Structures are given as C-alpha cells and as structure tokens.
Amino acid sequence: MPRFLSRGRTRVIRRSWSGSYATGSVEQALAYSELFWPEFILHEGCVLLERIPDSFPTWTESLGDSTKVEAMLNHRHISDLFHRDASHDVMIRLGRVLKYAWTLKLARDFPDRRFAVEFYDTPSDDPTDYQVTFISYTTTSNQTMERTAGTLDS
Fold first, then answer.
1. How far is CA 147 from CA 10, 65, 144, 152, 153, in A?
2. CA–CA separation, 74 vs 70, rounded Å?
3. Using CA atoms, how far apart are residues 15 and 32, in angstroms rounded to an integer?
4. Checking phi first, is residue 147 left (phi over 0); if not, alpha (psi -120 to 50) or beta?
5. Can you give the chain as a three-state secondary structure string?
6. Which of 3, 62, 94, 145 has a CA between 20 and 30 Å from the CA of residue 68?
7. How would you write the pLDDT of the chain (154 residues) with one tens digit per residue?
8. What's the burial of 80, exposed, middle or buried (CB within 10 Å: 0-12/13-18/19+)?
C-alpha cells in the first residue's frame, strides 16, 4: 500500500520495496533504467540526450547558439513519458528525481563540463508544463554560468 508523505506543498507517494516485487518485467526495469541513467553524446559541441536528431541542423541554424539548441533538443515533458492520468504531485516528484539522476550522470560522463539541469516544477493546470532539460558549459574556457541568462525560458 502506498504511503503518502508531505514535502512542502507537494504530497508524494512512496512505495515500500516489499510491495514492489513481481510487479513488472526485466524489460520494463531496463527501459526505466535508460530513462533515469540515459546515454548522452557529444555532437558539434553540444551534449545531447541519447541520439542526434534529424532536426539538429535546422535547430542549429534557427537558434544559432549551442546553449539554446541543447535546451530545445534535450527537453522532455514528463507527461509524454507516461499516461497523462498521473497526478501533478507524482509528475513533480518524478521530474525532480530525473533532474537529480541526469545531473549525476552528466557530471560522470563529461567531467570537463558543467551543466545546468532544470526541472520546471511550478504547479500548473497543464501537465505538459512539467519538463526537464539541460545545457552544458565547458570549464576549459573563461565562460561563466551567466551564459544561461534567459536561455531556458526563451
């Protein structure tokens, strides 16, 4: 039986491990592991989630800035990953976990870069507003974190 915990204004559901056994398949577990611990690639100075989309040249030409290209191509709407009948509280909790996991994985895979991983968790009536994305910075240059000013909201 799920237990409900309160964290600020958000109620989250936690299941004990004992109630989780024999409720899925190994294939499902592997699919979820790829969501929480995805493959990232480096392409033309951009760190991208999983693959190089066919639209990469179009976005590069249109946006003209690698930070904006990364933010656009790397964003994922929580509601697109699962059935849309999940509660907002559960989507917010999942988004926060994804943000944390992606932050760790990006730091592990690209130790020479710094990342801003963002999850938009302001309560909303529209489930598509809950999205996670990231952008990267090289630490070998004199660039600062100010590079993000306004880019994730654009």
1. 31, 11, 6, 10, 13
2. 6
3. 16
4. alpha
5. CCEEEEECCEEEEECCHHHCCCCCCHHHHHHHHHHHCCCEEEECCEEEECCCCCCHHHHHHHHCCHHHHHHHHHCEEHHHHCCCCCCHHHHHHHHHHHHHHHHHHHHHHCCCEEEEEEECCCCCCCHHHCEEEEEEEECCCCCCHHHHCCCCCC
6. 94
7. 344 444 454 454 555 555 556 678 899 889 999 999 999 999 999 999 989 999 999 999 999 999 999 999 999 988 888 776 788 888 899 999 999 999 999 999 999 999 999 998 888 888 888 999 999 986 544 343 334 333 444 3
8. exposed
For tokens 């996670």, what's the residue? 132
Looking up tokens 């592991």, which residue turns up? 33
Q: Which residue has the tokens 């020479």?
A: 112
